[in-house]
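Project standup — Tuesday

K.O.: blocked on the structure for the chain from last sprint. Re-posting the sequence here as requested.
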Amino acid sequence: MTRLAAFNPAVRTLDESIARAKAAEKLGYESVWTTQMPDARDAALVLAAYAHATARVKLGTGVLPIYTRHPTAMAQMAATLDEVSHGRFILGIGISHKVTVEGMWGLKLEDPVEAMREYLTIVRTTLRDGGAGFDGRHFTARSAYSGPHRADLPIMISALNPRMLELAGEIADGVVLWMCTPAYVRDVVVPTIARGRQKVGRSMDGFEVVSAVPVCLTTDRAAANEVFRKTVARYAGLPYYRKMMDASGLKDELDAEKVGERVLDELAGIGDEERVRDAVRRYREAGVTLPGVGPFSGHEGAKGFEATLEAAAS
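H.V.: unblocked you, prediction finished:
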């Protein structure tokens, strides 16, 4: 089968979440990713449970916010989870948002691109060399790690806007995207990453462009659209996402506070099996190397997580 990932944030019970990870593995998905939400289970520990219940599928964080873990702690967690999963872990990290970093955690979000550069440098150096000596403006580390560590453990950045995308091209192994239209991936994401790669003398070969693709196999498209409309409206209220959405050609509708069917169809595959598969195809054609099928439900007509994964893979 063609390469596919499954986005599987932890749901009502941990047992159900684990069953979904096992289903993705059974269906031949290459990897399973989970997202750290501010009010949800610890994503790294959830992946440890997935690792115990699966044998082959890779396990990724899409993504962990950097401000909740010092980079030395992030490196320790990544190396340990990679050991627990026998070399199947992919580390995805992101900045989060001002409302979360400052309003919820009481920290300061300043110059996120340079903060990410320092953070990733410390994590990368620790995983490669078993320690880091780094004095930065945002992060400092003088530390060692004596456990097993994989030097080439993949590290990916959540990136939306050009400066972070270019940084990802320079120093990361991939990007993790959410709420990006296929046109934005094609016209902004891929060319900007390529510029970052060129700055350090690298091609796009081996660079992973992971994008969550929201999909819903359903008999009630109108109800599913209503569920997803609320998701889009919520992310449109966050400045990083709104800036990207405006640049994606969605500005007029969002300014009018109208998340219409055109916007929903740009971002997701909602309806029958053909609509689900078409969404994955559109993202792949735009330059996504690893589409991350993200099933959602929330209404009576939804066919469910496993059925939607199966439709996307068929």
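K.O.: great, moving the ticket to review. The chain has a mean pLDDT of 95. The two ends are 9 Å apart (CA to CA).
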